[in-house]
């Protein structure tokens, strides 16, 4: 487990570095972070808020109450919403950061709505999500379990004491799913970065309207 945690921590650091290098945010950049965590299980949780040098320019949007989050990050603006339409005007933010959230918003239809809202309120976006074809699923922490049919998966997570992981908790995506989703949202200015462990893709980073390439 220590090795897995170390890989996960390094992956979060790597994604943050990709974000900084590609988007080059500065002291005037307005960033929307969709789905930051109220509870922090690791030191690398809420990596953006921990590392970004201008936390006062970050707005967090999520469905949690964020009581502890506001204590930890008092400079960050927090907005709670109902999980549907983002409560912001068009192009409110220069960029959006969304780390491992889109797989939790619901089925493909809800993911499409979610993605459309991101590109509506943000001029460009950095979205990451686990690869559903990777052998290890980071939520259940059980090898191959997510490959099983949904009904069997739901039964097993109950048996191992993780019933929260079943039902509508997550709808993982592969590369083809991501491309289909982008096409449905009429997004054509994007690229997909594959974060790898050896030759296996752990997760994807979706870059939309990358500065300099638009």
CATH superfamily of the largest domain: Vaccinia Virus protein VP39
Strand order of the largest sheet: 3-2-1-4-5-9-8
Q: Per CATH, which architecture of the largest domain?
A: 3-Layer(aba) Sandwich
- Taking all Cα atoms into account, the compactness measure Rg is 17 Å
Secondary-structure element order, N to C: HEHEHEEHEEEHHEE
InterPro entries: Methyltransf_11, SAM-dependent_MTases_sf
Keywords: Methyltransferase, Transferase
GO molecular function, one term: S-adenosylmethionine-dependent methyltransferase activity
Protein name: Class I SAM-dependent methyltransferase
Can you tell me about this structure?
This protein has 214 residues and is an alpha/beta fold. It has two domains: 2-132 and 172-208, Vaccinia Virus protein VP39 (Rossmann fold, 3-Layer(aba) Sandwich); 136-170, no CATH class. The chain is built from six helices and nine strands; from the N terminus they run αβαβαββαβββααββ. The strands form two sheets. It has a seven-stranded mixed sheet, with helices on both faces. The protein has a two-stranded antiparallel sheet with strand order 6-7. The chain is globular. The N and C termini lie far apart (41 Å). Keywords: Methyltransferase, Transferase.
